[in-house]
Amino acid sequence: MENKKFANSKLNDQELEGVAGGSAGTTAEDSRFLNVLLAGKPSQCDRYGAARIRFEDHDSEIADAWKSVGVDATIHSGSLISSGWANTYKINGKEVSHYEAMQHAMNVVGKQLSREEWNW
Asked: For the whole model, what pTM was predicted?
């Protein structure tokens, strides 16, 4: 039997990007989060939308920003024709979720951000 719980649900472009398995949306989210979290620090990265992530190579800039807060991130943004693979995040060699990586980064910096504070 089909689950009708989400029958009338609508996803925005960023949510749809995640469902499709691509990581350009996640990488763009990372850039926005790290840009605000690391404001004024040498490791601060710029803010990018998913389209710029796919057209331009910012993977190493974003991975370096993650590294500055103790997270080893492997970024797979994909390209214009490919969604890429899912990004991975590791802390002390242990793979963690995207959420856990973000929480760790906020703890390291000593700044707790709500989604509204960085996702604009």
From this structure: 0.74
